[in-house]
Amino acid sequence: MSNTIDKEQFELYEYARARMSQKKNLYYHFIALLIGSLFMFVANTWLQVFPETAWYIWAITIWIFLFILHFIKVFITHKFMGKEWEQNQINKLVKKQQEKIAQLQKQVDNQNQ
Fold it and tell me: From the CB of residue 14, how many other CB atoms can be counted at a distance below 10 Å?
């Protein structure tokens, strides 16, 4: 019994650690977005890197789109496809496999009779 509790506690700890890591990476992504956007703006407007176009607007827009996808993955999709969803999918697959094994066993038994 103690072994089961330890395993469950370890799984909960690992899950919490993984979630914390996901959120931390999202925050780093946000900081990089802010600093990178500022750098691109300065490079295009003040340093005159390809000054004939406002390329930084496109670059920042694409980066914001990627950040939004990252945000959706961490805070929205994860709720629908989190640990509970994962466990349900595993249970469904195991059940399907058990049914197929039972069917095959039944076929073998019928052929042996």
Answer: 10
How many residues are present in the chain? Answer: 113
Q: From CA 38, how far away is CA 56, in angstroms rounded?
A: 9
| pTM for the full predicted model | 0.70
Alpha helices in 46-112 (DSSP H): 55-71, 78-80, 83-112
Q: How high is the pLDDT of residue 46?
A: 92
**Which contiguous run of DSSP H or E holds residue 43?**
helix 2-45
Task: State the Rg of the chain over Cα.
Answer: 25
C-alpha 15/C-alpha 34 separation (Å) is 29
C-alpha to C-alpha distance for 108 and 48, rounded to whole angstroms: 77
